[in-house]
Input
Amino acid sequence: MSAGVPRLWRIAHANLNRALGRLDQAAADLQTPGDFDDISKDFNFQAARLQLLLSRQRWAEAAGVAQSILAFLNGGGNQSACILTTTLLSDAYGLAGRLAEARETANTARAMLTDRTAPLSRTAALASAARWAQPAIEAGLSQRKSY
Output
């Protein structure tokens, strides 16, 4: 996608490509400089980048990006962005095999929920908490042993 296409459209296109499994195209969408003034402060860009890293199974790098995003968001008042990022961090931990950290981080995201939480963040936090809960992990391990 060319740099002449508006930033949010390129991010949306990157997210669509990622969802469709076209990870190289998603990365290319995010690498087009164009109107990305300061990507370190652009939550939409960083969230798309974080999700791409998770899709590429680059767990440690994804955890680092999530921690950087949270450091930037800290105290900024965007609770839904914090919840979504914390949820993605829990997934990075869990997929890397750091189950205790995944569970703790997912529970942190769930504890942050309020009536005003955006639906996407609410759904992500509840799904992550369920995904990394001890009984769910134990059930998944017992299923693997039965194969």
Remarks:
- The chain has one domain: 38-145.
- The two ends are 44 Å apart (CA to CA).
